[in-house]
Specification:
single chain; alpha+beta; six-stranded antiparallel β-sheet; five-stranded antiparallel β-sheet; 14 strands
């Protein structure tokens, strides 16, 4: 019986199938990895843009002298814009234009930052006090409820690393200033956001002299 001509052979050999499957797996892994990296990069970039936009939003609120709902809790004037937890028996029935509005960032709560407003004339200190909270603003997640980006570092004037900082804007003028709870101040502030999975970081930079808010 004559041998079959290799040219007449149909289908793939086992070796050819294994090679094809290996190539397919390599391509799939490469594409999946690339998509994952792109998503992680966008998670970081979108949160950096979000922080910048929220800083500008609070500054705009201060400049426009936006009034907030407040109450007298028997100790001081408290903000009750979203809830009345700080009011005690007091009624949330008074609108006040804050002397300052601001944001507190802290590495002790790296998933969110706090929008606050100074509504009590006896507590005008350019720092966050508990009764001044307007809302907690959480960093965003693009894939699930798990937040993968965090506030990793806060740097004043490029040399003073602090755990917590309050950014405040004066009413109408919108003048920006920074201060940590221990009184450390400066003209420059860097808010470093880091992706927990990749370790990559970007910085939102604020300049109290020029008023500029940039991304580095």
């Amino acid at each position: 019986m004559p041998l079959a001509d290799p040219k007449d052979r149909k289908g793939f050999t086992l070796v050819e199938l294994l090679v094809s499957m290996t190539i397919l797996i390599i391509i799939t892994v490469a594409v999946t990895t690339d998509i994952s990296i792109s998503r992680q990069q966008e998670e970081l970039a979108s949160n950096v843009r979000f922080v910048r936009s929220m800083v500008r939003d609070v500054q705009s609120r201060a400049q426009s002298a936006t009034s907030l709902n407040t109450c007298d809790n028997g100790t001081n004037i408290a903000v009750c814009e979203l809830d009345t937890a700080n009011c005690g028996a007091g009624a949330c029935d008074t609108q006040i234009v804050p002397n300052r509005q601001g944001l507190r960032f802290s590495t002790t709560h790296p998933d969110y930052f706090i929008h606050f407003a100074e509504v009590d004339p006896l507590l005008v200190n350019a720092q966050y006090d508990g009764d001044e909270e307007v809302q907690r603003i959480f960093l965003q997640s693009t894939r699930s409820s798990v937040i993968r980006v965090e506030v990793a570092d806060l740097m004043i004037d490029g040399s003073q690393s602090v755990d917590t900082v309050d950014i405040t804007f004066n009413r109408q003028s919108g003048h920006m200033q920074f201060e940590d709870p221990l009184g450390v101040t400066g003209n420059l502030l860097g808010i470093t956001l880091t992706h927990r999975e990749t370790g990559r970081s970007e910085v939102v930079s604020l300049n109290a002299v020029t008023g500029k808010i940039t991304i580095e």
